[in-house]
Amino acid sequence: MLPIWERGRASSVRVIARKILRDFWVKPTYADAEQPLKAWFKLAEEADWAKPSEVKQALGSSSIVGDNRVVFNIAGNKYRLVAKINYPYRVLYIRFIGTHRQYDFIEVTEI
Questions:
Q1: What is the pLDDT of residues 55-67, one digit of tens each?
Q2: Distance of CA 107 to CAs 36, 38, 97, Å?
Q3: pTM, whole model, 2 decimals?
Q4: For 22-41, how does the pLDDT look when each residue is reduced to its tens digit (9 = 90+)?
Q5: Cα separation, 29 vs 16, whole angstroms
Q6: Helices marked H in the chain — which ranges?
Q7: How far is CA 41 from the centre of its chain?
Q8: Rounded distance, CA 49 to CA 28, Å?
């Protein structure tokens, strides 16, 4: 298979891994996150983000942080999702999902 830069732009972002999201929302405490996370997943999977500014343009409430990390606000900022994005290959790795309080205890550029 040709590398992405030889094939032209990809049609979507590959999100790794949905199971992380599902494992989060099946906990009764976080059940209200299910629909917002499903909506975020669908949007991310259909995106074609080639650079951080395109993420910010699509989701203005997202925060671009160091080392290709992006922080997404979920469910009206009740939850935070941290992803590392490999822009040339259009692959998004979910690194963290949790409450705002839990987010305060992580080092976002190292997770």
A1: 999 999 999 998 8
A2: 24, 25, 13
A3: 0.86
A4: 999 999 999 999 999 999 99
A5: 23
A6: 4-7, 18-25, 34-46, 52-58, 100-103
A7: 8
A8: 33
